[in-house]
Amino acid sequence: MKLKLKNVFLVYFLVSLSGLLYALLQLGQPCDCSPHLRAAAEHLRRKDLKISQLQAELGRPPPAPAQPPEPEALPTIYVVTPTYARLVQKAELIRLSQTLSLVPRLHWVLVEDAEAPTPLVSGLLAASGLRFTHLVALTPKGQRLREGEPGWVRPRGVEQRNRALAWLRGKEAAAGGEREPPPVGARGVVYFADDDNTYSRELFEEMRGTRGVSVWPVGLVGGLRFEGPQVQGGQVVGFHTAWEPDRPFPLDMAGFAVSLSLLRSRPGAQFDPTAPRGHLESSLLSHLIDPKDLEPRASNCTRVLVWHTRTEKPKMKQEEQLQRQGRGSDPGIEV
Ligand SMILES: *[C@@H]1O[C@H](CO)[C@@H](O)[C@H](O)[C@H]1NC(C)=O
């Protein structure tokens, strides 16, 4: 009796299966519809073809796939660059702007040593594709380098960096670009990047998480292969430098970054234009942090990701000669 019931189920199963297989085989076979329906289907198919042809003729590119939104949590890096007019200015700024283009969530704060924005810098910023703010701050006469004076006699770019600090604190108007300072409570990092150094894009990711002041080595500076903090157990315990090691912060301008909130919480902290040679960095940092609280980056300060490179001043002997003959290079062409 049990056996028979099992057979019944087996037969029932096989019949259902073959029914299903038959139905599946029928799918995709030309249907046995009436010629009337077939004509209608053919009509629709031709209309579809026509529509897609017309769409192709319109030549509209397909909508770009949506970019993943930048995570709001990523702090913005404010790169402060003082700059002044000279033969190599455009070359330096182009090189720097194209390095900065590789870095997400970056805002370039360019400060011209000029009375008013120059067309060269304004044009370069507009074409850079970067988020930027354009500031101007003329170096006062007394602080200006005199003709023939070596660059280390007096610190350069002080007025300009302080103008950028004032803008970041909402105390100074901008000449161009994004004029509004970062909103209150915005997460950000401030880095002072001169226009002639060489920067690895990796450096910017190292500094992005800065809570107070972060530090790292700088290559080709101070007469050494590199200068930088010495780190033990993840803490800065000293500095590798050959020159005036007793300075409170024997660091190069390119060797540290400061969190925006720390800068805003100490409104008096700025660079001192009267600071003795080599003490400019200390004049800002001593208002902000204790050396032992510096945050070492770049693998505990064992990797060099920025170089204090110097561009040679171009010689213009031939140019001057031609100019005396009234045949100088076309001054209408920007170099
Ligand atoms: C830095 O050094 C500390 C302590 O020795 C260690 O825990 C940490 O992993 C190091 N960090 C890096 C990025 O090498």
Question: How would you characterize this protein structure?
Answer:
The chain has 335 residues and is α/β, with parallel strands linked by helices. It has a domain at 76-144 and 153-214 and 250-290: Spore Coat Polysaccharide Biosynthesis Protein SpsA, Chain A, CATH 3.90.550.10. It contains ten helices and 13 strands. The strands form three sheets. It has an eight-stranded mixed β-sheet, sandwiched between helices. The protein has a three-stranded antiparallel β-sheet with strand order 8-9-10, with no helix packed on it. Strands 6-13 form a two-stranded antiparallel ribbon. Helix 3 packs parallel to helix 4. It starts with a helix and ends in an 11-residue tail after the last helix. The relative contact order is 0.11. The chain binds 2-acetamido-2-deoxy-beta-D-glucopyranose. Residues 233-234, 299-300 line the site of 2-acetamido-2-deoxy-beta-D-glucopyranose. Residues 233-234, 299-300 line the site of 2-acetamido-2-deoxy-beta-D-glucopyranose (NAG).
